[in-house]
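Table S2 (continued). Query chain:
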Amino acid sequence: MNDFQEIADRVEIEALRGEFTDAAMMRDRARLAALFTPIGVLRMPNVPVELIGREEIRTGGERLQSQWDFFVQNSHPGMIRIDGDTATGRTYMQEIARLLDGRSGLNFAIYHDTYRRTPQGWKFAERVYEVRYVDTTPLEGSAPGPGTQAHGSGTTGAADDFSEPASAEHLDRAVGTLQANGFAAELLDDAAAARARVKDLIPEGASVFTGASETLRLSGIAQDIETGARYQAVRPRVLEMDRTTEFDQIRRLVATPDVFVASVAAVTETGSLVIASGSGSQLPASAGGAAKAIWVVGAQKVVPDLSSALRRIEEYALPLESARSRAVYGRPSAVNRLLVLNAEPQPGRGTVLLLREAIGF
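Corresponding output:
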């Protein structure tokens, strides 16, 4: 290996480490997971957490980041030693964070890294996070969002952070306006509570169509509905059908189930649900085709108004969904159809389970 190749390798590895910090700060879990080899490992013994493979790293990051009020990570370059197509290194970290339960702290830590050269460039084979110092003295400062723009002040200035959970005040306001608009809206603590509530709301034996949703997947709601014999699950059935010869039957099954369960892209504080779709397959059931509809919504999806909801879709949700779609289907997603539900004209048909925690896109 000549000197120029080693210089190029060092520059690429340093860029990889910087990309990790940027993805963590931007809460871009799909991008962060893609920085690892397919069987890469992220270990944090002090937490404790061990995530193996890109999917675990992505979903594990989702769980960890959903607990943050705010988080700031600063990384400082350490050593890099290259040995052919593998390398080792260290990155020094300074972090401050506050969780939604009020705990906060300052810590200094080290990432002990192993890197591997791949056809797509250098990737992490392993990152091991070692904490060297922790100070849990309550932090006096605060994050400027979501209180300014993303959740209802109407002011201009810093960019919206659509990943931050709305405050209790904004959640209460959203629930109140949803109820005034005819939705049965409930405020629940977390995904576990929503999972239990969904079981209460769906009668045994009902035909249930689950919309494609990270919220349903991460909460376990999709698994509850789509496995076992409690319900007539529509999604597993249509996935086994031929889209060419059985399209008309598929169309009817997904449009008019007894119960439709999904999430939404945004909930406005004026009491509207905003749903984005690439194919449009879940929109008929949401709009009125299903006898009953249940939407499970994370706290980060509450926005002041429709214009904020549309920005949230384009600037935040779509890039994350496109990254997921590329990983699963090999192609990006798109907002080909939009549905806005301003009210529910049939009282009791539509239920919104709004959570106090962030989950999904």
